[in-house]
Amino acid sequence: MATINSKIPEGPLAEKWSNYKAHQKLVNPANKRKLDIIVVGSGLAGASAAATLGDLGFKVKCFCIQDSPRRAHSIAAQGGINAAKNYQNDGDSVYRLFYDTIKGGDYRSREANVYRLAEVSNNIIDQCVAQGVPFAREYGGTLANRSFGGAQVSRTFYARGQTGQQLLLGAYSALSYQVHQGNVELFTRCEMLDLVLIKDENGQERARGIIYRDLVTGEIKRCSAHAVVIGTGGYGNTYFLSTNAMACNGSAAMQCYRKGAWFANPAFAQIHPTCIPVHGDKQSKLTLMSESLRNDGRIWVPKKLEDAKKLQAGTLNPNDIPDEDRDFYLERRYPAFGNLVPRDVASRAAKERCDKGFGVNNTGLAVFLDFKYAIQRLGKQVVADKYGNLFDMYKEITDVDPYENPMMIFPAIHYTMGGIWVDYELETSIPGLFAIGECNFSDHGANRLGASALMQGLADGYFVLPYTIQNYLADQIQVPRFSTDRPEFDAAEKAVKDKIARIMGIGGKRSVDSIHKELGHIMWEYVGMGRTEESLKTALKKLDELEKVYWQDLRVPGIPTTLNVELEKALRLLDFIEIGKLMAYDGLNREESCGGHFREEHQTPEGEALRHDEQFSYVACWEYKGEGKEPELLKEPLNYEYIKVQTRNYKN
Amino acid sequence: MDKNISFTLKVWRQRGPKEKGGFVSYQMKDIPTDTSFLEMLDILNEDLINKGEEPIVFDHDCREGICGMCSLYVNGHPHGPATGATTCQLYMRRFKDGDTITVEPWRSAGFPIIRDLMVDRSAYDKIMQAGGYVSINTGGVPDANSTPISKEKADLAMDAASCIGCGACVAACKNGSAMLFVSAKVSQLALLPQGKVEAARRAKAMLSKMDELGFGNCTNTRACEAECPKCVSISNIARLNREFIKAKLKD
Fold this sequence. Notes:
The structure holds 2 protein chains of 2 kinds.
Chain A: H1 16-23, H2 29-32, E1 36-40, H3 44-56, E2 59-63, E3 81-82, H4 94-104, H5 111-131, E4 156-157, H6 163-180, E5 184-187, E6 190-199, E7 205-214, E8 220-224, E9 227-230, H7 251-258, E10 263-264, E11 269-275, E12 298-302, H8 305-313, E13 326-327, H9 329-333, H10 343-355, E14 367-370, H11 372-378, H12 380-398, E15 407-416, E16 419-420, E17 433-435, H13 453-473, H14 487-504, H15 512-526, H16 533-553, H17 565-589, H18 613-616, E18 618-623, E19 632-637
Parallel strand pairs in A: 1-2, 1-9, 2-5, 9-17
Antiparallel strand pairs in A: 3-4, 6-7, 7-8, 10-16, 10-18, 11-15, 12-13, 12-14, 14-15, 18-19
Chain B: E1 4-13, E2 22-32, H1 37-50, E3 73-74, E4 77-78, E5 100-104, E6 113-115, E7 118-119, H2 122-131, H3 151-161, H4 168-172, H5 179-191, H6 193-196, H7 199-212, H8 223-227, H9 235-250
Parallel strand pairs in B: 1-5
Antiparallel strand pairs in B: 1-2, 3-4, 3-5, 6-7
Helix pairs in contact in B: 2-7, 3-5, 5-7, 5-9, 7-9
């Protein structure tokens, strides 16, 4: 069995990153020009990494599936980005951001990584301001901040409700500058379809290139490099309905997994509590309502079951339910944090009420988020100034005016904490392959705090990978550029073409979406917010059956050698089914509840998540063992030297 | 609230950039009005696939109005009849039973058709690469609060920066001009001290790239502003022109 070396540097926590940088190997400017790096993905992590590596002097090739790097789904992040600037003088510090992140992640992330993340968070804000990112400001001209769930300080920087957009456009502008400088070459509408490994003179396999498909022409092409970086986001679309964009997928990660990269903590998926509920079977995605709404909105369901029944039947107006008959269940259960408890806690509490029959819409799967009280307290204008764009979006989608009626919300899949395992250097278990952003198993443990995804993506891309990758590349300066005519590329390309031919040849009757929807139902039902040993075993059985349906009954119209959107989706769906299985295996193994992973057998008498630290304080790394075989579990123990591991408490 | 409508959909279909395209009519039956416009196209595509035909190709991704990937000329308007919204934010309750709905791609020399309703907007990336940035490297920048910026300037910069790069302004313009797009980026950066340093040079570089790529010029018809899904103001074009004149005077 492989042993796991997470390469955490020596020394006290606060000095590890400085020590690392002081002693790591570097590549001199003349040699940088001789080294090629492939970056797959152009979101916050990919674009910031590609731009920074380009500006250091490496030759970068950046791939994205959209028509422009600016479309990556980082763009849709609404609320903000955390940093430990303490501009508000409210007691924030690097240590506190580190502590909140570890606690928010339910003590399932690596101390050294999270401390480094908190350290570089401040550099990110400086960098973005220098790029011209128009963060919100106070009248005095300084930067403004707001609060987010799971924190007691105001450390979130924001640009209206479009922070992700502005940060991505900042990274995209830096990337565009490097394209102009000739250091980065863009490959848009190109999708990675496999990773290519080449053995070095010692027989060690290293990541040396990719096979990709030009999505416009359908051509299968090759690209070689000295190192490969993937920053391709999360796998939330395994559930079909999620807050992810339609094209978000986990395929690049799965290609790496099948080539030997470990997949860590796949079961840790974040379910965001405030999304617009599902309205029908034709729905294509779920829309998030920003967490910032929980600053002023109060979440409730009726106290009386008969009121809930009437709401479900549409015979009662929620405004006619008097306050004393409303159950503000988050305020009731968690007095200290109230409506601002972390996402996993808020989502589970909503599910608990709906499971008991208190849901408020026709499907019984919704709770109210009510602004009546905020409007009474602050006036309609103040509420409109703060949340106007979100209210408009809600009204456009649901045809209900949230100024007059409470919003209806329900949890939905939003973010995946699990992903490709990386060490302290962000290198995967394959030498020369690095993973950044949501795509890696990341710094968020079992649950991510709001406004921390943007922080992590940009930390990895601007300030961590550009250092750590040099420690690897310094040993590669003697390695000449690779020809893509090598047999390793031939073999990888052939495998890709064979797979495509097999899919095109199925000749069944069902569309990709119809099977993907079925996958989503299985995942939500059996690997969703509440999981049991039985449900996870059922999921594995059903996923095997679904895979058979795929290979027997899928229909992909058209031909593969031209633009073919259905083929793109079919390739991604196959990987989603495999990810679903990995999630179920991981969920079965982790017989405890922590963060986004709730095993119903493991809860306190009050219904809170019950961790088992003695048994499960580790990162679960899954190693691919071949098609149709069960993956093998490897464990990276998590040692907490600097903080005391406790039960998360948001009650008092 | 919930009801179903039936209507005729006239969709532009074109196999490739150089092939001849034409409208194809589809009868849509019992579409719930709480379906989004793109979900309605999903329903049609599902039908087409089930019949063994090729689905209609159109660009889309986030489906929440921010990525700028979706396009479509719906009944003569870029992003359809709603104001301040992208096509993906358009819902079928905007339409009536018995309507005929016409769907076309962006039509502009700067955006060649790839297939059906999908167009090539890579020209926007090229314009950005010509100067849509502050020429700095990563690291070595001052503390974020070292330069105060008035709230007013920051808000104006944010208004300009809300452009999603969808191309509706070009599609709406009878000259096929990309001035609103270019001016939004030039304004955003010229308004902020960090971008002010090279504002004139940036304006000149981006405009000359825009001309080179075959986009037309601005004749102040204001169609771009009226159709912009993010309501980006043409006052940005005035700001762009000021920066451009500054650059010219230096020449």
